[in-house]
Amino acid sequence: MENVKTTVSQTSTRQKKTTVPLNGNGARVQGGVCTSDVTLSAHTGDNSDVFPKVLDLHVPKGAKIADVTYGLGVFWRNVNLEDYKVTFSDLKTGTDCRALPYNAASYDCAVLDPPYMEGLYRKSNGHLAGSGTHSAFRNAYSNGQETTTGPKWHDAVLDMYFRAGAEAYRILKQDGVLIVKCQDEVSANMQRLTHVEIINHYARLGFYVKDLFVVVRRNNPCITRLKKQVHARKNHSYFLVFVKTSNPRSLGKQSVKKGKRLVRKRRS
Ligand SMILES: C[S@@+](CC[C@H](N)C(=O)[O-])C[C@H]1O[C@@H](n2cnc3c(N)ncnc32)[C@H](O)[C@@H]1O
Asked: Is the minimum distance from the CB of 165 to ligand 1 under 6 angstroms?
């Protein structure tokens, strides 16, 4: 007979039985394997290299996914589309990620990658970033339209992520996964850590930030008209992975449980 020990722990509502293997001396044998074949958090490459790794780790095969800012579909270049049930949409094809035509709690996963820099949210089309010879950039990163309402500059970027995040929360099932692509920026000479601003706001919506991937560009970005460098030129961006919980200000299961226990203690 296998040498095992069964422990019973009591949570507030039910008992949990755990069986651990023991060695000949009755000591615990640790499980798992020693390997360096693991998914890493930082990668040099482009989105099509990293996005499949994010999916592999966080989204089970067969999941129902809505990519709500499909663009040119770069994310999906190295993904076998038969592995998932994917719905693609974009403002270019008439669907606004802030008002999706999907039922509440109907998707396992949502993918969000709206224009991430303030230069792509301007009141006049002539002032949009990526004019002239940079039009390929503008076509890849934006729908090329003016932003005539809402906040300006970097706050326009945040407004898009915040509203689209709330809409993603609506269409996701409980424990559904939201994958967000973003990049920090310097706006009006101020460092704006977009990924931190998004994480803080999404916690208030009820998203737990489960993971973060860094994508580092292969080539060196150049700065036009540099006089004196003040901030490091960004050559990295992020994939953030959120999980929908029912707890606004979500800090993850551990912290939430701890919080409840503390409240109970104080009352008794
Ligand atoms: C950074 S690109 C997305 C690139 C895409 N992930 C890919 O793999 O090619 C941003 C996209 O967001 C789209 N977009 C901008 N505003 C939007 C909105 N309100 N709703 C949906 N899509 C929007 C743009 O048309 C553009 O295609």
From this structure: no
Cβ-based neighbours of 96, under 8 Å, separated by 6 or more: none
pLDDT at 118: 84
Sequence-ordered list of residues with C-beta below 8 angstroms from that of 135, at least 6 positions apart, any chain: none
| CA–CA distance, 123 with 146 (Å, rounded to integer) | 5
Provide the 3-class DSSP secondary structure of residue 195. Answer: helix
- Check pocket membership of 130 for ligand 1, CB cut-off 6 A: no
The residues, ordered by sequence, that sit 6+ positions from 173 with a Cβ below 8 Å of its Cβ are: 105, 106, 107, 108, 244
> Locate tokens 């993603």: which residue?
168
State whether residue 148 is helix, strand or coil: coil
- Residue whose CA lies nearest to ligand 1 atom number 4: 71
Report how far residue 75's alpha carbon sits from residue 117's, in angstroms, rounded to the nearest whole number.
19
Question: Whose C-alpha lies nearest to ligand 1, atom 3?
Answer: 71
Nearest-atom number in ligand 1 for the CA of 144 is 25
Which residue has a Cα nearest atom 2 of ligand 1? 141
Q: Is 213 helix (H, G, I), strand (E, B) or coil?
A: strand
Secondary structure, 3-state, 50-84: HHHHHHHHHCCCCCEEEECCCCCCHHHCCCCHHHC
DSSP 254: H
User: For a pocket test of ligand 1, which of 54, 90, 118 has the largest count of ligand atoms closer than 8 A to its C-beta?
Assistant: 90
pLDDT in tens, 135-188: 666 566 666 666 667 888 899 999 999 999 999 999 999 999 999 999 999 999
